[in-house]
Design goal:
By secondary structure, the chain is an alpha/beta fold. The protein is built from 7 helices and 8 strands, in the order ααβαβαββαβααβββ. It has helices spanning 7-10, 21-37, 57-64, 76-88, 125-135, 151-164, 181-190; strands at 47-51, 68-73, 94-97, 110-115, 136-147, 194-206, 212-217, 223-229. Strands 3-2-1-4-5-8-6-7 form an 8-stranded mixed beta sheet. β2 (68-73), α4 and β3 (94-97) form a beta-alpha-beta unit. The longest helix is centred in the first third of the chain and has 17 residues, at 21-37. The protein starts with 6 loop residues before the first helix and ends in a 5-residue tail after the last strand. The model has no long low-confidence stretch (mean pLDDT 94).
Length: 234
């Protein structure tokens, strides 16, 4: 089965243990993402929605920067693991179970929505982005990453990462759901958001455990980061 979203609940009890290699890979992506996101937002005091929070890696990193974070994900057991870990660390993060197509929040409640490793999994991209625009305050930011759709990204993500190296479980992604940058820009526009710059994200080295370390890279060929803004007065 492709686009298998049950993987997050299956490892919920090990999410913060560093025992599962592919979960460590997700954790290792966080600093690289923040290296780029930090250029676009001042975190302290900002109300942030972590859309697709899973077990809470991004949510905790943003909370540590001073943001007021709410996380939401359909994987209920992963959300519970995130909730327990945040409580144990004294981090006041709010976690909810839900989907991006129907966010259970009032309009204009967040200064930014952060959405990583999510858009290439959703059932209705336009609906998710419409919900993002709805819950953003005027002038608010949408910070995201996703996977480009082309033969090289399919080879890197499915053949290499899933089938050969085991950096992700087999079946994690359906390459038909990958999104070309120009397609995403059109969807952002339809949602009433103004697309900003993009940046590639990829391996930049290997750590002491032999796991990949990630950071910004010049090409958008596989994973790319982006930012969009809700116009003032919208």
């Amino acid at each position: 089965m492709r686009n298998d979203l049950t993987i997050y609940d299956r490892v919920a009890d090990q999410w913060w243990s560093d025992e599962v290699r592919w979960v460590r890979t997700l954790k290792n992506l966080v600093p690289g993402r923040l290296t780029w996101f930090d250029r676009h937002i001042e975190w302290p005091g900002k109300a942030i929605l972590d859309l697709g929070c899973a077990g809470g890696f991004m949510a905790e990193a943003m909370a540590a920067r001073g943001a007021v974070v709410t996380g939401i994900d359909p994987a209920s057991e992963a959300v519970e693991a995130a909730r327990r870990h945040a409580h144990g660390g004294g981090l006041p993060i709010t976690y909810d179970v839900g989907v991006g197509e129907a966010l259970p929040y009032a309009a204009e409640g967040f200064d930014a929505v952060v959405c990583v490793d999510v858009l290439e999994h959703v059932a209705d991209l336009d609906k998710v982005l419409s919900e993002v625009a709805r819950v953003l305050r005027p002038g608010g930011l949408f910070l995201f990453d996703t996977i480009n759709r082309n033969p090289l990204s399919r080879f890197a993500t499915i053949t290499v990462a899933e089938n050969i190296l085991g950096l992700l479980p087999r079946g994690t992604h359906d390459p038909r759901l990958f999104i070309k940058p120009h397609e995403l820009r059109k969807s952002l526009t339809r949602a009433g958001l103004v697309a900003g710059p993009t940046q590639g994200l990829g391996p930049r080295g290997i750590d002491r455990r032999g796991d990949l370390v990630f950071g910004p890279v010049p090409l958008l060929t596989v994973i790319y980061l982006g930012v969009a803004r809700k116009p003032e007065g919208a």
